[in-house]
């Protein structure tokens, strides 16, 4: 799950980002509405988490602008405002859910999961199955090939998960870096190559059929049939 967090409270933003990443989510963090809108133009996210009070625009104004652009990405509003009137205002602006500060992190995770499950048919299922070749379980972070369980690191799982969303599509090293590590991550493209190498060692080396291909000069692709 790729999440955009829009929160101007640095301490809270750092905490939310840290805890979400520990849950194996990919998280980008914007401190204001302008940077958030820029990220939305350049990156596809699964969920937006918007604070009510942010610089340049309020979370409500940002929410309305997102919906005016026909962007249907689920939105979770965070705010200290807990009156019924405020909640109605947020929902009427286009938010899908509303969480009052201070909140329990387990409740935040539960609400994110609920939004994820309610996404339209283009949302990714908990388990992605490519025939008998590859099975990716996003609820347990388990992967198997030809019935054989393959233990992966957190980053390897995130990389495979993203590639599985685009089977047979050539993905550049820059795309993989932005989506898996984050656009602000201080890594080189050699890090992408090294992680792909480790992933291929686990997913391809033990098997005769190779599913991760290196397309010289262009990037990498996951060659699997089907996907449901």
TrEMBL record:
It comes from the Bacteria. GO terms for biological process: regulation of DNA-templated transcription. Keywords: DNA-binding, Phosphoprotein, Transcription, Transcription regulation, Two-component regulatory system. Residues 125-224 bind DNA. The keyword Transcription applies. The modification 4-aspartylphosphate is found at residue 51. Pfam families: Response_reg (PF00072), Trans_reg_C (PF00486). Residues 2-116 form the Response regulatory domain. The keyword Transcription regulation applies. One of its GO terms (molecular function) is transcription cis-regulatory region binding. GO terms for cellular component: cytosol; protein-DNA complex. Residues 125-224 form the OmpR/PhoB-type domain. InterPro entries: CheY-like_superfamily, OmpR/PhoB-type_DNA-bd, Sig_transdc_resp-reg_C-effctor, Sig_transdc_resp-reg_receiver, WalR-like, WH-like_DNA-bd_sf. This is DNA-binding response regulator. It comes from Paenibacillus pectinilyticus. The lineage of its organism: Bacteria, Bacillati, Bacillota, Bacilli, Bacillales.
